[in-house]
């Protein structure tokens, strides 16, 4: 079940949104906006965030900007502000959509569904971790637009990074990577993985992500 997080400071609107979304059904969480929202989002890893602009602590635009440095989670601004400049600012800061209050429930649900469908298509073609994007269609890695030029990966480099990103946060042993890369080979020189890893790390460094892949001595690799 897809998880939607509501970040809204008005209790009645927050509860109204929860009832609406749970009826779909979505899994819904609604943390108190006075808390450490960045940490809560990192831990909860929602599929989509409904975000208000006027929050009691960090404002919605700042929170969105901070999130975009490390996450591509879809964000729909749902706010009482309704000028074209408000909408433009939200989209420029990294929002995926903008809806003014009072909203029509059917319109909100349609917007959520559309953003989730679009995100699913993008995820099928690319992986994201922190602020790095692995584009499976083009075989390239890149940081957010404007920070660097994409770097092209070889087939094995792409497979290594794909496997590590699919297991992000976990330690992946050398043996596990060798089995994934060359499972049909009878014998592979252990140095082949080291060579490919060195080349991959060099390309990561070239786009500004030199420490993206860590080494856990005696255990394997981890991102």
Automatic annotation (TrEMBL):
CDD domains: trans_reg_C. GO terms for molecular function: phosphorelay response regulator activity; transcription cis-regulatory region binding. Residues 124-223 bind DNA. PROSITE patterns: OMPR_PHOB (PS51755), RESPONSE_REGULATORY (PS50110). One of its GO terms (cellular component) is cytosol. The modification 4-aspartylphosphate is found at residue 52. The keyword Protease does not apply. Residues 3-116 form the Response regulatory domain. Residues 124-223 form the OmpR/PhoB-type domain. Keywords: DNA-binding, Phosphoprotein, Transcription, Transcription regulation. It holds the Pfam family Trans_reg_C. One of its GO terms (biological process) is regulation of DNA-templated transcription. InterPro entries: CheY-like_superfamily, OmpR/PhoB-type_DNA-bd, Sig_transdc_resp-reg_C-effctor, Sig_transdc_resp-reg_receiver, WalR-like, WH-like_DNA-bd_sf. May play the central regulatory role in sporulation. It may be an element of the effector pathway responsible for the activation of sporulation genes in response to nutritional stress. Spo0A may act in concert with spo0H (a sigma factor) to control the expression of some genes that are critical to the sporulation process. This is Stage 0 sporulation protein A homolog. It comes from Eisenbergiella tayi. The gene is graR_3.
């Amino acid at each position: 079940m897809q998880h939607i997080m509501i970040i809204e400071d008005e209790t009645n609107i927050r509860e109204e949104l929860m009832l609406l979304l749970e009826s779909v059904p979505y899994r819904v969480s609604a943390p108190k906006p006075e808390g450490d929202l960045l940490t809560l989002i990192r831990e909860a890893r929602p599929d989509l965030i409904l975000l208000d602009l006027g929050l009691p602590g960090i404002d919605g635009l700042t929170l969105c900007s901070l999130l975009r440095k490390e996450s591509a989670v879809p964000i729909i601004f749902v706010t009482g502000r309704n000028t074209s400049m408000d909408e433009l600012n939200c989209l420029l800061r990294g929002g995926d959509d903008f809806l003014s209050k009072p909203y029509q429930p059917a319109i909100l649900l349609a917007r959520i569904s559309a953003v989730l469908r679009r995100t699913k298509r993008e995820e099928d073609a690319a992986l994201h971790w922190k602020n790095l994007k692995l584009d499976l269609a083009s075989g390239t890695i890149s940081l957010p637009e404007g920070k660097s030029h994409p770097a092209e990966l070889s087939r094995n480099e792409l497979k290594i990074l794909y496997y590590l990103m699919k297991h992000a946060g976990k330690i992946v042993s050398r043996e596990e990577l060798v089995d994934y890369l060359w499972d049909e080979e009878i014998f592979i020189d252990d140095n082949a993985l080291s060579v490919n890893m060195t080349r991959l790390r060099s390309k990561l460094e070239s786009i500004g992500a030199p420490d993206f892949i860590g080494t856990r001595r005696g255990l394997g690799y981890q991102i």
